[in-house]
Design a protein that fits this description.
The chain has one domain. It is an all-alpha fold. Helix content is 77%, strand content 0%. The protein is built from 16 helices and no strands.
Length: 325
């Protein structure tokens, strides 16, 4: 059977799962679409059955389409906006990401969690939530249960931020711009950043988005480092590590977006396509999860997520006090 015919049924199933999830998001905008895709995939796998004819296509969706979605994320970033932060603010954002990533890995080891789960949580919390987890999984190929736990943790803590951070603005002495910087540096998903920062007005929202997108730009070097370390650990050092092609394409997408040659309509279309591709990929990953296996992981991942959330909030606040004083 030609490969295109072998993968078509699974891709159709993944597209259907993404379509249902996106429709639910449009009906109830507060529901995060990518998390819905994962959840629906899990329901299909555990309440129904994933047919054998869908396996090949779901594998492509969870691999190739996932990487393509990450590449398209680059079109949301432009270098001039990022450079406008200033060198001190840029250094602080890099510091927040580095400390959160390293601190989460350390906490994961202390809690006795697997290296892959700790790495996925560290990447998701320090960069951009579900998209970053997907990008990291694209180079380490973690267990599906670990991906699911990482997605659940970053979604839980990002949602908690929406209701816990706004009341803290005045007690912490943050003006709207500083508050926006704190949210952009410390909240995970872009949509969560928008929801959390908009409570303080347009100045807070604008600052939060720029700071957040600066963190997203750091996804490329971070995943490149992860890929290099993973290649070395799995090859015993006998093979030269190569930066994944999709990370190079991600950087190229940022470059194209920075030229300003794309219309708003084109950017909107790219954003829509990215959401569909990532939705299909995460639905496919969800279909590989078995709930009975998740029970055995226990409460330690939750402790790791809460610790990482507290760490990035504290480090981001300290950075804001330095960079936006």
């Amino acid at each position: 059977m030609p490969r295109s015919l072998a993968i078509a049924p699974g891709l159709v199933l993944a597209a259907g799962g993404a379509a249902v999830s996106l429709a639910a998001h449009r009906a109830v905008p507060g529901l995060p679409p990518l998390v819905l895709c994962v959840g629906l995939g899990i329901l299909v796998a555990n309440l129904a059955h994933v047919p054998g004819w869908a396996t090949a296509g779901l594998s492509v969706a969870g691999g190739t389409l996932l990487r393509a979605g990450v590449v398209l994320l680059g079109f949301d970033l432009v270098f001039p906006d990022i450079l406008a932060l200033g060198l001190r603010a840029l250094a602080i954002v890099v510091g927040v990401v580095a400390v959160t990533f390293a601190g989460t890995l350390w906490a994961g080891r202390k809690l006795g969690l697997s290296a892959n789960l700790s790495l996925l949580v560290a990447t998701g919390f320090s960069i951009c939530g579900v998209s970053a987890i997907a990008a990291a999984n694209g180079v380490i190929d973690a267990d599906e249960d670990e991906v699911t736990f990482a997605v659940a943790l970053v979604t839980l803590c990002g949602t908690l931020a929406i209701v816990t951070l706004p009341p803290l603005r005045e007690p912490l002495g943050l003006d709207p711009e500083a508050y926006g910087a704190w949210v952009g540096a410390g909240v995970h998903d872009v949509a969560q950043v928008v929801a959390t920062s908009s409570t303080a007005g347009s100045a807070a929202l604008a600052t939060a988005v720029v700071v957040k997108l600066t963190r997203v730009m750091l996804l490329a070097p971070l995943v490149a480092v992860i890929a290099v370390r993973h290649a070395r650990s799995t090859s015993g050092g006998s093979r030269a590590p190569v930066v994944p092609p999709f990370i190079i394409l991600f950087l190229a997408a940022i470059g194209v977006a920075s030229l300003g040659v794309l219309s708003d309509g084109t950017i909107d279309a790219i954003d829509a396509l990215r959401t569909v591709l990532l939705g299909m990929a995460l639905f496919a990953l969800g279909t590989r999860v078995r709930l009975e296996r998740l029970v055995h992981i226990g409460a330690r991942p939750l402790a790791l997520g809460l610790a990482s959330w507290a760490l990035i909030a504290a480090v981001a606040y300290a950075g804001v006090r330095i960079g936006w004083a």
